[in-house]
Amino acid sequence: MTETWTAPKATAAEWARRNLFNRWYNSALTVVLGVFLAWLAYKLVVVLFGIDYEIIRRNLLLFMVGEFPRDQIERPFISTILFGLAFGLGAATAAASARHAAAEADLAYAAPTPRMLVRRFWPLLALVAALLAFTRTVMPTVMALSTILGGAALYFGARGMPRSMVRWGWMGTLVLGIAAFAVIIVGVDGGWNAWGGFQINIFLAIAGIVIAFPFGLLLALGRRSSLPVVRYLSVTYIEFIRGVPLITLLLMGVFALGFFLPEALRPGPAIRVLIAIVMFEAAYVAEVVRGGLQAVPKGQLEAGQALGLPAWKTTRLIILPQALRATIPAMVGQFISLYKDTTLVNLVGMFDVLEVALVVNSQSDFIGKRLFFLTLAFAGVLFWVGSYTMSREAQRLEKKLGIGER
Amino acid sequence: MSTVFADATQAKGEAIIQVEGMHKYFGEFHALSDIDINVGRQEVVVVIGPSGSGKSTLIRCINRLEKHDRGRIVVDGIELSDDVRNIQEIRRETGMVFQQFNLFPHLTVLENITLAPRQVRRVPKAEAEQHAMELLERVGIPQQARKYPGQLSGGQQQRVAIARSLAMKPKVMLFDEPTSALDPEMIKEVLDVMVELAEGGMTMIVVTHEMGFARAVADRVVFMADGQIVEVGTPEHFFTSPQEERTRLFLSQIL
Ligand SMILES: Nc1ncnc2c1ncn2[C@@H]1O[C@H](COP(=O)(O)OP(=O)(O)OP(=O)(O)O)[C@@H](O)[C@H]1O
Ligand SMILES: [Mg+2]
User: Fold this and answer.
1) How many C-beta neighbours within 10 Å does residue B134 have?
2) What's the pLDDT score for residue A404?
3) The pairing of beta strand B44-48 with beta strand B203-207
4) What average pLDDT does the segment A283-293 reach?
């Protein structure tokens, strides 16, 4: 057996000498920059630990759920736990089905270890830990721990499921997901109009993209239809919506829908906003899907036709599975931008997390204390953690889909 | 058009494919002009000709991947028209193998082969899979059934593509340069499968420049240039006494 020669790992000192102190001017630059960064870090630490976080501590519930009825406050907690469980079971089922497919085809499959998961989701875990550290209340702690530990336990416990259980895994995920929504809608005073805070941003983003997806898919297919009427209608819709800012649609959703529909049919503000978001997102989803459809080589369509498959079966069984797989990264990107765009809804009177971040500054204890920077930064961090995690996961998925399957 | 014997474009026995006075345009461009060719049952016809001469277009018209503009195409008694049912009918009777294989990358080999029989002919899953395994046996790669196309070599992929077409039990097989995307060492394994298929009595139209294959199994060779059929004859005729100057020039380049 021959030993393979590997370059000895450079020590930190060697690396620094080669990259930071290789010329006199480079050394000077390194020193100056180093001093500046150290000073910045010191200032940051002083500020971070010197701030009085009372405004956030006291309003944390308001940030998270707005004015959700306080006598039913256990419901959002239960909902969060159910979401954690749904996520755990969904991930376990996806892992199991990937493992079975890989085993069949003799492909390598490496299941992530707990350590890898911590590395992937550290921003989320860090945020939760930080919040718990300074609220130090029982209910949120119990909720956060149940959510994370419950989700993780379900994931590690269920990912070894046999092939026959995969279907039930998906069913269970769906049921848990629906239940998570149901506990904060059914039997709540005011239904989903009671929602507020960060919860409504998350709800609008998830419901928005999920409901918009089938419409977007149809629009994308319509755009390629051989029937001119269908094609022109799809193109007109897509191009019209893409030419209009979301805020315009939101305002129209809130005012126009209220104006044109009779009182009895008029949905509540949350639903009107959701309708506007779905109309908006459908056009963007359609464009994302169109990109995916274009990525499928023409030979795939021809192979399906040559085998005598009817057009719609060729589309459904050959073109769409490949096209949608190719759109996953772009779809996540679209979801992230919608997630952030949901902060526009405070302009049409919704009590979302951004609105909370503004109004808490007029509470008598905090008025005139110029804490806007803090409350806004907090709202920003909430969004950043989600966006960053999702975009990293999308990159991972993109890499994974790139190999083996094509 | 010049041919050795007057009816060289006609099949000897009963014709399963009849093409009469067929024209094809791409916009202004006259890609096929006045094509007459019949193919008999169990006959093997090899089509040769320079790049851009319309060989692919000709066989793609036969299963309506391209729509012809004038003339008639009849496959097994069904005339190609705008009627979707006729088109589907003909596509079921006609298998096609592409230069780029065009396997479905998101499906396993077995799923690639069973897809059309199950979806179009409504064959039960178990039966379709059993038939697929027999076909994979025939093309020599039964151990690859559960893999994805991306895990196979080019030669293996093309053999899977042949098996996929055969799964529909077609009466005619069309091949469009099935070996020209392959590394030299893989060409033979694909040609062997095709030779076996020809010897088994399959009706085939094969666009290829593998003259060894033509000599071994072709009943007739068709030489095309500039969208026209220039010369038709037996392989022997082409090797010994091609009539047209263009044919001779072309053969001197590829042989
Ligand atoms: N979809 C199309 N649109 C426009 N022109 C086309 C199209 N398909 C083919 N052509 C043209 O028709 C002519 C015949 O093309 P075809 O692909 O049938 O040639 P070929 O004999 O198969 O050539 P090759 O050996 O390169 O495959 C070429 O000049 C080509 O540029
Ligand atoms: Mg060609």
Assistant:
1) 13
2) 40
3) parallel
4) 95
For helices B154-166 and B109-120, give the axis angle rounded to 10 degrees.
20
Distance of alpha carbon A9 from alpha carbon A332, whole angstroms: 37
Predicted confidence band of residue A6 (pLDDT cuts 50, 70, 90): low
CB contact under 8 A, A302 and B151: no
Please tell me the number of Cα atoms within 13 Å of A306 on its side-chain side: 31
Mean pLDDT of the region B222-233: 95
Residue of A nearest to B170 (CA): A307
**A85-102: per-residue pLDDT in tens?**
999 999 999 999 989 888
Q: Is B26 in the pocket of ligand 1 (CB under 6 A)?
A: yes
B33 neighbors B228 (Cβ within 8 angstroms): yes
Over residues A137-160, mean pLDDT: 90
3-state secondary structure (DSSP) of residue B118: helix
What does A348-389 look like in DSSP terms, one character per residue? GT--BHHHHHHHGGGSTTTTTS--HHHHHHHHHHHHHHHHHH
pLDDT band at B194 (very low <50, low <70, confident <90, very high): very high
Distance CA A220, CA A128 (A): 39
Kindly list the residues from chain A whose CB atom is less than 8 angstroms away from the CB atom of residue B120: 307-310, 313
User: pLDDT tens for residues A180-226?
Assistant: 989 988 888 887 788 889 989 998 998 899 999 999 999 999 999 88
| Candidate from B104, B105, B120 with C-beta closest to A308 | B120
Nearest of A166, A175, A174 to residue A92 by alpha carbon: A166
Query: And the tokens for A247?
Result: 């805020």
Asked if B238 reaches chain A (Cβ–Cβ under 8 Å), the answer is no
Smallest CA-to-CA distance from A148 within A171, A127, A133, A166 is with A127
What pLDDT digit, counting tens, does each position of A113-126 carry? 899 989 999 999 99
Strand partners, B175: B97, B206
A310 close to B (CB below 8 A)? yes
- The arithmetic mean of pLDDT across residues B176-200, rounded, is 94
Label residue B117 exposed, middle or buried (CB < 10 Å: 0-12, 13-18, 19+): buried
Atom number of ligand 1 nearest to Cα B29 = 5
CB count in 10 Å sphere of residue B150:
15
pTM: 0.84
> Contact A159/A95 with Cβ under 8 angstroms?
yes
Residue A402: closest C-alpha in chain B: B150
CA distances from A243 to A101, A238, B231, B244 (A): 43, 9, 59, 62
Where helices occur in B12-75 by DSSP H, the ranges are 55-62
Query: CB-based contacts of B164: which residues, under 8 Å, 6+ apart?
Result: A307, B103, B112, B113, B115, B116
Q: What is the pLDDT of residue B125?
A: 95
Tell me the backbone φ, ψ of residue B30, rounded to 5 degrees: -90, 90
Under CATH, which number does the domain A196-406 receive? 1.10.3720.10
Residue A336, amino acid: I
The CB density around residue A330, as the number of other CB atoms within 10 Å, is: 18
What is the pLDDT, as a whole number, of residue B9? 72
- For chain A, the domains span 70-189, 196-406
Lowest-pLDDT choice from A64-68, A165-169, B43-47, B192-196: A64-68
